[in-house]
Amino acid sequence: MSQAQQPEAARPGGRSGPALLAGAGFSSGYAWYVIGVLLLAQTFSFLDRMIMGLLVGPIRQSFEISDTQYSLLAGLAFSLFYATMGLPLARIADAGNRRNLIVAGIAVWSAMTALCGVARGFWGLFWARVGVGVGEATLGPAAYSMITDYFPQRTLARALSVYMLGVTFGSGVAYMLGGAVVGYVEQMGTISVPVLGELEGWQLTFFIVGLPGLLVALLMALTVREPVRKGILADQPAAIPLPEAARYIWSRRRAYGSHIAALAIFVMVVYALNLWGPSYFIRTFGYTTPEAGWTFGIIMLVAGSAGLLLAGTIADALMQRGVRDAYPRTILASMILLVPCAGALAFVDTPALGIIAIGLAVFFSAFQGGISAGTLQLMTPNRLRGQVVALYLLIASLLGLGLGPTVVALATDFVFRDDAAIGKSIALAAVVLGPVSILILWQGLPAIRAQLDQELGRAEHETAGRDPAAD
């Protein structure tokens, strides 16, 4: 693609400094407050998403379904519409008010999580999970875009990693609190609720974790302000027209394709660990649901959070030393280190070794959390960022969340034919899928580096023409 054919936001030196809307215009303290609110939203997002990991037993018993059927409820039902709705919602995020889009999304996914609690059968719960996915599809593209406008490049990786702590916080709280709630409500048997009638204990769990999210939507609406978009002309439409956006991505398909494909395959392993982690302790070592929830919840909170924060710190440090492909290099290292840790789950035979192996696997799996989409933010012009992140989330969700848990379930049901072999199924997924993702990302590094050089060089050229304090 020639320079004249490129989106205006991507042309080196294509705009003069004074014509740019530069910087978010807010203090550093307020920017970190926004990160805190977005972290809370992300926490509730994953709380509502991952609570399914603790309800395998009661829902399978209630609906009389297999592991494979359950994986469709926990994964595919959510991810199919989460992914497909991401692109049209990202168009809104690139052109409209991102804060308002997130507010609406939080309200929708919180209400739909509560509605999961009134499902009377497989298909009722399936379509309620679809609604959760549609609501949560608003958060990723809009939040990443807002954060990139709130923070300068030198602290962006840390900001994104702190935001993504919501993943480990949400998953950890889902398992710790959820395990306690499930253990409590299972002892209650059938519960009579006004208007709703008779509910089983697992159904009440969805109301307990879903409805508080409406308060987060209110907090977002009342206290978070939409930042000014960096790198856009004052009289320029925010979103790049769809045909132009498609041409831009296609012309750089090796860079975008290798990054997105590698991460999507890797995320299959990540979600397999996250969803089946509690079941691993229950089936392998005889833990109760509350014990498994507490154990895996602490692993997510401690190991997952440490992995996210360390990855952001490493990536920022390398960026400040001039390593422009610091983000993908950090991810590649974590992929290599995860494979033997997850593979060990096929062989460990004591709870202590199981905790160490799965803890290390979760630690390395979390590295990609903030900087995978962060890489795309740095590779992409502002007016296209939401759509590129939505494309990544579409593919990563369909493969990662849609198929990752199902691959493990299929191995358990049809390869090992033993529920107690869940550790071997997770290990098999890791040692097969991990090397594939490593090879794809490694081969794509030169193209990713070239795209980062172009886009970061353009951004530095434009920043030099305006007041640095604006950032």
Overall description:
The two termini are 30 Å apart. Mean pLDDT is 83; it is low at 1-24 and 467-471. Helix 1 (28-50) packs parallel to helix 5 and helix 3 runs antiparallel to helix 18. Strands 1-2 form a two-stranded antiparallel sheet. It has a single domain (22-229, 239-470), classed as Up-down Bundle (Growth Hormone, Chain: A). It has 19 helices and 2 strands. By secondary structure, the protein is mainly α.
Give the name of the CATH architecture. Up-down Bundle
**Strand and helix order:** HHHHHHHHHEEHHHHHHHHHH
The level 1 CATH classification is: Mainly Alpha
Query: What radius of gyration results from the CA coordinates?
Result: 22 Å
Strand line-up across the major sheet: 1-2
* The CATH fourth-level homologous superfamily: MFS general substrate transporter like domains
N- to C-terminal distance:
30 Å
Structural class: mainly alpha
Per CATH, what is the topology?
Answer: Growth Hormone, Chain: A
Overall mean pLDDT: 83
Whole-number count of domains:
1
